[in-house]
Each structure stands twice: as structure tokens, then as C-alpha cells.
Amino acid sequence: MKLTLAEALSSPPLNTCKIAAGFNGISNYITSVNSFDAPDVIHWLKEGDLVLTTGYVFKNEEASLIKLVQDLARRKCAGLGIKTNHLQRSLPSEMISIADEYSFPIFQIPDEQSIADLVLAVLRRILAVQSEETMEEEKEIEIYSLLRYIPKDVLENYYTHLLSPLIEYDQLNHSDFIKTLSVYLNSCLKPTETAHTLGIHRNTVHQRLPKIKELLGMDFNNGENNFKLQLALWSYQYSGQK
């Protein structure tokens, strides 16, 4: 699991910020957060960085601000948070157009909001998500340590009974429905997060899910079904199939 910009902006103190452009990129992942007031910082930024600035350095420098947005978008940064009190209270229209074109989120930070507090809040959220991810990995190791006590033929019969329609479909169509299902369940049934993990468009995930449900004859709204499928996938993976 990774922290998305939408999740970061949904909780205090970032929930006081307002998206101004690039809304289609709201599901961008945040891997780190940086604050700056110097235009040459772009060379230090990388994919997934959330960038926060008071905007003071761009006072009366509209062209530099527009170039910054282009550079951040091209580097696939997560988004830009900026105070507008130094920018006559509004963002340049060209800047908004570029952000929308690249699906690069820009949000306005309230004048009274401390940049340092925002940085700390985002870092805490990133660490919390990473901690959850570590716990998930440890959980998987524990499950595999339990599966080794189950005879191999029992495991094979179990996952074959549930997953054979997907396994056969993947083999015949060179598709990847098994992996899609695994990531979807591990992503808590979130199509957008599934798409990010698989490196595909979320519409592709939405197209695959109905077919996967049809092949399995199962509804993902049933918690017991999901547990059975997850156990079958663990058995499949433990048996060395993936």
C-alpha cells in the first residue's frame, strides 16, 4: 500500500487545502515530501515527491512558476501545494491549463497554515502506511510458514478448485487475471490502487473485474468469498506457481 494525494488531503491539517488544478491526478502516490523557496530545487526532486512552497520566490515571476509546474509534472512528482498570498490570490491561467493537461494536482495552502506542519503531517502518514505494508509482509511470511505444514496435494486441490477457471483463462488468452485478482484483494478492493500497482490504467482494471467475477462465479462483496480466494492465492503462490 502507498499513500495517495487524495488520502493525504482528506485528513488534517491538509484537509484545509483546496485543489485548484490537475484534479485527475488526485490518486498520485506520495513517496516523499519537500518544501522549498528556491527555484533551483527541481534538480533534487524525483517521482512521487509532494512539493510544498510559500510561493514567495515566484512573486512577480509568473513565467518561472509556469516552468516549475511543467518540470514537476515531467518528473512525475505527486503534486504541488502553494500559498497564493504572494500571487495576487490567484494562480496564472496558463499554469492551471498545464496542470490539467498533465493531470498534475495543484492545491492552494491557506495563508495561516504552517508549511512545516504540513510536511510533518505527510511524513507521518507515509511512515504509517509503510508500517502497515511491513506488517502485511510479515503476515504473509507467517501464513507461508503455516502452509508448509499442509500436504502439497491438499493445497493444490484447494487452489485448483477455486482458481482453475482463471488459471485456464490466463493460459489460453495470455492474460494476467490471477495477478489482477491477487493485487485487487491486497489493495482492499480499490481499483485505482490496483491499477497503480499493476502499472495499468484504472479503466483496464474495471474491465477485467466483471470477467474475473464471471469466471469465478463469486461476488467480491462477500467477505467469506474473499478470504477463500485469498487463501487459494496464497496456496497457489506457495506451491511455486507464481
Automatic annotation (TrEMBL):
It holds the Pfam family HTH_30. Residues 178-233 form the PucR C-terminal helix-turn-helix domain. It comes from the Bacteria. InterPro entries: CdaR-like_regulators, PucR_C-HTH_dom, PucR_C-HTH_sf, PucR_dom. Residues 8-126 form the Purine catabolism PurC-like domain. This is PucR family transcriptional regulator. It comes from Bacillus salipaludis.
